[in-house]
Amino acid sequence: MIKRTLKENIIQQSFHGQVLIIQGPRQAGKTTLALDIAKTLKGKGAVRIFNCDDPDHRALLENRGLEALKSAVGPARVLFIDEGQKLSTIGQTLKLLADYYKKNLQVVVTGSSAIHLLDKTQESLTGRKKVYTLYPVSLEEISQGGGVGQRELEPFLVYGSYPKVVTAKRKQDKVDILRELKTSYLYRDVFDFQGMKNADVFMNLVKALAYQIGNEVSYRELSNLLKISYVTVERYVHILEQSFIVFHLPVFTRNKRRELSRLRKIYFYDVGIRNAVINNFTPLNERDDLGALWENFMVVERMKYREYHRIEANQYFWRTYDGSEVDLVEERGGRLYGYEFKWKPREHPRVLAKWNEYKGSSYQVITPGELRGFVQ
Predict the structure, then answer these.
(1) How many Å apart are CA 293 and CA 183, to the nearest integer?
(2) Residues contacting residue 348 through CB under 8 Å, at least 6 positions apart
(3) Residue 249: closest CA among 159, 331, 358
(4) 249, 243 in Cβ contact below 8 A?
(5) In angstroms, what is the C-alpha Rg of the chain?
(6) For the whole model, what pTM was predicted?
(7) Could you give the domains of the chain?
(8) Is 6 exposed, middle or buried (0-12, 13-18, 19+ CB in 10 A)?
(9) Which end of the chain is more exposed for a tag (fewer CB within 10 A), N or C?
(10) pLDDT of 243-257, one tens digit each?
(11) Are 137 and 297 in contact, with CB atoms under 8 Å apart?
């Protein structure tokens, strides 16, 4: 089993009177992690596990009063609720448990849809929850402090970092897993769960986004391309973001005249899913999208690293009308940190004069040989 960085972070926060919520993409390992945490916490007392995919388990927790919930918990000191977003009354259930048990019961909840889990618990669990995001396996978790070389990186840019994909031995097995993930992810979670009716249009949008990673995305252009309304594009992208399939970077701007302000970049949480969407598992040396793949991969890996190490930062990209660009901008501690991602190192990395006009800003080119301290 791959050792997940979040485990120790979560265990340290246990029995502090808060509900611990682990959100993230389907099949990223949330259930495995939660069960591992529950096993570690078993020394604190009995563990009770509910799988909300099971209607019998849901019936014990859904729309229940405190006495019924106390009966369901029994003598347990650790309560694990898997796929908590399936409970229509998840917010009410967790609030009752948190208010009654306080530090005497540790509740751990997992969920694959932020729109159905966090939205339902936003008001009821104010000050009573701590939220963690578990992504597909990170480079840091894979390397375990040993570092990853350029040749070792190549499979991750083609097949991504889902646990089942990483541990699969054969390339065809990796492809088969990704195709199944794509189908279950998009069709079951998004189409069925969100009640979406126009599947073809939605899939065409996902494919259009997959082809545009690394580039600025205009909802107006997508609207014209797919012959759907701007509002529909906006709604579909929001659903994709809330389902942990894609996320966006807004543009960083302080000079409205010189810098773009309305566009955004959209990336996939996992480049393997992205490649599955366009059905392209071609080796890196035969691809024409290597630069975009490396950029997407690095933005996500950096996001994982910041999340797991609790590095607070706002993230953007930066571009001027004349084409000057910084792939990733982090605003943290009152300073700006700019990063450009290049698969092949250059002898003399360019330093952007206009970027350097920002007081206290820095600029760094990240290549496969310069990952230490950045993502691992």
Answers:
(1) 21
(2) none
(3) 331
(4) no
(5) 22
(6) 0.91
(7) 6-133 (3.40.50.300), 139-308 (1.10.10)
(8) buried
(9) N
(10) 889 999 999 987 655
(11) no
